[in-house]
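Researcher: Can you fold this with iron/sulfur cluster in place?
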Amino acid sequence: METLEQIKCRIEAAIPGVGLDIQCNRVVPGQASLVVPPARALEVARFLRDDSRLALDYCSNVSGVDWLDRVVEEHVRVTRLVDGQERVFEECRERRVPGHLEAVYHLYSMRLKHGPVILRQRTVNRVDQARLASLTPVWRSAEFQEREAYDLFGIVFEGHPDLRRILMWDEFRDSPMRKDYVEPDDYEYEPTPHDDLREKARRHYPIEADA
Amino acid sequence: MDEGLRSELSRQGVFATTIQDLYNWGCRNSLWPLNFGLACCAIEMIAASMARFDIARFGAEVFRPSPRQADLMIVAGTVTKKMAPQVVRLYNQMPEPKYVIAMGACAISGGPFKRGYNVLKGIDRYVPVDVHIPGCPPRPEALLHALITLQEKIASRKLTGPSRARAFQEEAPGEFPVPEYGPYDLVPAKNTDLWRPKPITRNE
Ligand code: SF4
């Protein structure tokens, strides 16, 4: 199979102005993924499926990822005048990266027996613009898994034929797999509570040592 | 009738019993379980009903597909919050006298999924449970033991008098409120008339 760079070049040639990006996986080398903007995702998906050299006809897996707002530290070099001399300093700056949600698609080719090509779509934020393009029109197998990502992460897939909750009940109003999800407080006795659970246990059962 | 007279009569070839004993004897040896399973524990329940463990030896092999014909509910497996209302509804549809065995860590407490957002932490929050079986999963022998324990319980139940079994008390509830799906959890999260855990004080 072609490398991801080659695939990226060919997509860019076929769909002008698509704006792809390659994201490396720092943990597992050689598992880079292709970040596609949701507005063009459907076109990219059609290309990947219909291209004769790729023929990615099988979407094996769709998963959701939740990225919270985070602060990254960056080391930058700055030149400053000290006692009339220019000197280079290394400075540590903090940059806020806004949180977003991601849907990750793992694509294989049954016909050519290769894969995976990993596709990512990102939402603008985690709150009011958690919208992505549904790729179910291209790969039917994504249908239930996109519903699951909608159910558990709250990602709205536009163009999905039947976007309903799939695991939780319809009346449920939350996204339990998000990192800031707070579960209902139906705590029960734990024999060895620790960390967060210990705090919870404190609230529910009087601890003799506290009294 | 006292025991001495009864054994004296039986030596003379006269069998004497009471309606209560006869009724309980028939009842405990023909418990018909409701045919449903919720998770992996159900596989052990199925194994218990097959030739090797043979639940038929204890008269409980007639698994009924309808709650109207069943008098024993074996809650075998994880009760998710989405499934809990249906389980309570099935219980309500069973005729009296009815019994519940909660089989496995999940059914009695939530088990390995206890800290999850979607699993009920014990079916005894909504229906009265007669026998709890720990284990993940309990072996078929454990289910048979639970069945025998239940049979002993039925053998000693009273049909009349103030200490009679729940099924024979007119004012005792035979149906329990079915919880509804709320925006974050089941509403109510537990039946407080039924589920009253002892307050626990922790020593640290
Ligand atoms: S107790 Fe264990 S075996 Fe039984 S349903 Fe729960 S997880 Fe499965």
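Model: Folded with iron/sulfur cluster in place. The pocket of iron/sulfur cluster is lined by residues B 39-41, 77-78, 104-106, 111-112, 136-137 (CB under 6 Å).
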